[in-house]
Amino acid sequence: MMNTADRSLAMIDYALRRRFSFVEMKPGFATDGFRNYQERLSSDIFDQVIAGIVQLNQVIANDDSLGDGFCIGHSYFCNQEKISREWLKNVIEFDIIPMLHEYWFDDKNKCQQEIENIKSCL
């Protein structure tokens, strides 16, 4: 059962959906633009992390309680001139892992497994 705060947010969501168009945006890891960006960076560790995120997105998309709408987008990894291990570590630690905790708050083992998988890409 939803708590009061969740119901309030649901009402806002419905109100917005009645008033505005919504366009589904899928992660763009396979687009020509992102692939060109990835090639320009020429970073093995970046390539490993992106492959890990693509694999994680498959897990998310196939999860009955999540699905395609919860996949992690490419924008977390954009607009860098040069890639460092430290920058990638920060993106994973401060952006990706908190999302995974929210996604699998009710399945600590699954959450930990996916965190370990993505950290192993670093």
Measured by DSSP, the beta-strand proportion falls in: under 5%
For the largest beta-sheet, the strand count, sense and barrel status come to: none
DSSP summary: helix tally: 5
Radius of gyration: 16 Å
Helix content: 55-70%
Give the termini distance in whole angstroms: 39 Å
Number of strands: 0
How would you sum up the global shape? globular
Structural class by helix and strand composition: mainly alpha
* N to C succession of SSEs: HHHHH
Average of pLDDT: 93
Poorly predicted spans? 1-5
Task: For this entry, give a set of tags.
122 residues, mainly alpha, 5 helices, 0% strand, disordered N terminus
Fold and architecture overview:
The chain has 122 residues and is an all-alpha fold. The chain contains five helices and no strands. Helix 3 runs antiparallel to helix 5 and helix 4 packs antiparallel against helix 5.
Please give the structural blueprint:
Blueprint: H1 4-19, H2 32-41, H3 44-62, H4 85-103, H5 108-119
Helix pairs in contact: 3-5, 4-5
Short synopsis of the structure:
Helices cover 62% and strands 0% of the residues.
